[in-house]
Amino acid sequence: MTNDPQTKQPQGLSVNQLSCERGYRELFNDLNFSLSPGEILHIKGENGAGKTSLLRIIAGLALPVTGEIRFNGYNCRKYRSEYNEQLAFMGHKLGIKLELTPVENIRSHCDLGKSCTRQQIMDTLKKVGLYGFEEMYCNQLSAGQKRRVALAQILLSQTQLWILDEPFTSLDVIGVELFLKIIREHVCQGGMVLLTTHQEVTLKDCTLKYLQLPDGTLSEPE
Amino acid sequence: MYNAFFNLLKRDLRLAFRHKSEILNPLFFFVIVVTLFPLGISPEKQVLAEIGPGIIWVAALLASMLSLDSLFRSDFEDGTLELMLLSEYPLPILILAKIVAHWLITGFPIIIFSPLLGTVMFLSNEAIETLMITLLLGTPILSLIGAIGMALVVALKRGGMLLSLLVLPLYIPVLIFSSNAVGSSMAGLSISGQLYFLAAFLIFCLTLAPIATSAALRVSLE
C-alpha cells in the first residue's frame, strides 16, 4: 500500500456529530470538535448539561446515540485496545480499593496497562505529596489524599489522552496547583487533556480551549 | 497479558484475605444449611443417605449464589471496574481472572469441607469421592454462570432477587447431573456419563462465560 495511514491521518482526538440522550431527554446534539496533541479542552456547562456523559462516551464507557470518535484517525470503538493503551480516565469514582495501600493500588492499576517499577511508584507518590503514606490502607486516607493516589495512577499510566471528570474535587489549594502543574507538564510533552471543572483553569503557555455544553460552541480564552 | 491475568488474580485473593468474611461466610452458610437437615427431617441413616447428595449440592448452589455479590459489587462501587473496562488488555481475560479468584475463595473451601458433610449424611466412601469430583467440576460452572448474572445486575441497587431468578434456573443441569452422579455411585452404578457431561459443560462455560460477562458488564456500566 502506498498511502501510509500514519502520515495521512490527523493526530489527536476528533469527535464528529455526537449526540446523546438521557432518559428521552436530549443532552446535546451534533457535537463536533477536535483536540490535537498539546491542547487542553475544558468542558463547561451547568449541572446536568451532559459533561460527565460526554466524557464517558469519549472514554468508551457509554454509547452515543449517533456520531463517532476517532483517535489518530482510527475509530475508537473498533480499535478499543489500541485506544485504551493511550487513554487514562479519572471519573467520579476514583478506582481505589480502600483495603489496599496506595502502593498496591497503583501497582494493580499499572498491571492493567503499562507496568511500572516500585521505584517509579515511590517517586510518583513523593511527587503527589503522599510520601510517608505509602504503607497505610487507603481507608485511613482523607478524600483529598485518595484523589492524590488517583492522580499518581494517572501520572504513571504513560498515556497520551487524559480524561478527567471534576479532577479538583476535595483537593486543597496546593493540591489543585500541583495537579495543574502536572497537567501542564503533560500537555507540554505532547499530551492531551479533556477535563470538566467548575473552577477557572488558568495555565500559562498552554493551548486551552473551552467547549460550552449543551450547544457545543468552542471558544478560546481572551 | 498473562501478567495482567495473574496480577489481577493475586489482587483479588489479597483483598479476600483482608476481608476474611468473604471466604468464611459462604463456607459457614454451606455447613450450617447441610447440618440443619438431619435436625429438621430425621437423623436416620437410611433417610439421610437418600437425600444427602441432593442436600449437599443444593447448599453448595445457594452458598455459591450468595457469594456472587462480592464478585463485581465492590469493584463497581469504587470504580475499579470502570478502569478494568478501559484496560488495554482483553476484558474477558481480566474477567476470567476475577472468576477464578472467586472460585478459589468460595468454591474451593466447599470442596475441602465436603467429605466432612458427606460423613454427616452417611454417604459411602465412594459416594464422598464422587461428591468431591462433582464439586470440583461443578462449582467452577456455578461461578462462571453466576458471573454473567451478576454482571447484568451489578448496577441495580437491589439486584439480589433478580440475580437468583436469572441464575438458579441455569444451575439446574449442574444440580441434576451432580446429585445423580453421587446417588449412582452410592448404588454402585457407573457415573462416567454424568462426569463427562459436567466436564463438557465446564469447558463450554469456561470458553463462553467470560465473553458473555464482559458484554454484560459493558451494558451495565453504560
Topology at a glance:
The complex is a heterodimer of chains A (222) and B (222).
Chain A: H1 5-8, E1 13-22, E2 25-35, E3 39-44, H2 51-59, E4 66-71, E5 74-75, H3 80-85, E6 87-90, H4 102-111, H5 118-127, H6 143-156, E7 161-165, H7 173-188, E8 192-196, E9 207-212, E10 217-219
Chain B: H1 2-18, H2 21-40, H3 45-66, H4 69-78, H5 80-85, H6 91-120, H7 125-153, H8 160-186, H9 192-220
Strand content of the residues of chain A, in percent? 25-35%
Taken from the alpha-carbon principal axes, the silhouette of chain A is globular
Rg calc of chain A: 18 Å
User: What is the average per-residue confidence, as pLDDT of chain A, rounded to a whole number?
Assistant: 85
> What gross morphology of chain B would you assign?
elongated
CATH architectural arrangement of chain A: 3-Layer(aba) Sandwich
Helicity of chain A, in percent? 25-40%
Strand content of chain B: under 5%
CATH fold-level label of chain A: Rossmann fold
Number of self-contained structural domains of chain B:
1
The structure class of chain A reads alpha/beta
DSSP strand tally of chain B: 0
Largest sheet, spatial ordering of strands of chain A: 6-7-8-3-9-10
Distance between the ends of chain A: 45 Å
* Order of helical and strand elements of chain A: HEEEHEEHEHHHEHEEE
What's the total count of β strands of chain A? 10
